[in-house]
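Folding Problem: From Residues to Backbone Shape
Fields: amino acid sequence; protein backbone structure tokens
RECORD BEGINS BELOW THIS LINE
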Amino acid sequence: MGIEEYGGGQPSQADVLVVTTNDVPGFHVDRVIGEVFGLTVRSRHLGSQIGAGLKSMIGGELRGLTKTLVETRNQAMERLVEQARSRGANGVLMFRFDVTEAADVGTEVCAYGTAVVLAPMS
């Protein structure tokens, strides 16, 4: 089975397998390329902050903020995959997200991992 077939439901990223593990069953690491990351910073708009403030008083999911965070994480991951691909990788191991506040104006999301070239075990 080639890496393209192992894409895990990620058709736009099928040529770069991204996993949180140290290895991939059935494959060995042929070459370690190094750290790759995708970074994005999103500002909060006034409407979502007011809505979040009101919602926090009565409880429940902050759907607007959840949607924004999902979009932000997806963008960071897409940038990670682009960087890995441009460096010749077909896999990213030990994938993680890091989320921090950026100077009280927004949220920084960084997707990072180790870019590798994976080859099927013989």
Summary: The domain at 3-120 is CATH 3.30.110.70 (Translation Initiation Factor IF3). The radius of gyration is 18 Å. The chain has a mean pLDDT of 82. The longest strand covers residues 27-43.
